[in-house]
Amino acid sequence: MTPIDSLSYQGMPIRRRGTMLNLTDMWQAADRPANRRPSDWLLLEETRRFRAHAGIHWTELDEPVAANAGHTGIWHLDTDGFIATVRGHQGGTWGHWPLALAYARHLAPAFHRWCDTTLRAAMERPEDPWPPASS
Predict the structure, then answer these.
(1) Low-confidence spans in the chain with pLDDT less than 70
(2) pLDDT number for residue 73
(3) Buried b (16+ CB within 10 A) or exposed e, 12-22
(4) How far apart are CA 4 and CA 106, in angstroms?
């Protein structure tokens, strides 16, 4: 089973499981902007186009998504493998890390910049420990 770990943005945890990040945690860490919940963002035409493009350019490095999402607690994995949802108190919407970076851009410029450096570094060096908490 892929363990869940997390990092912290201004004291708010953002959970990660393998190559998946909790988009709901990201929304909360970015101060819960109105009309920018993960479910709102996933309905946007721009998001749909991004997911379609990403699906065409899928690489072997990205393939562990389904395996990571299939573990206990994740009850629905979208057909493209980029989004999974979890029920319950500790649930939320999970997204593959490149999709999470696109979502961060939608949330707030400062949050996006932090995600682009911290998250990208962590995902490109999975053998390294998760980056220390920063704000």
Answers:
(1) 1-3, 57-75, 125-135
(2) 54
(3) bebbbbbbbbb
(4) 24
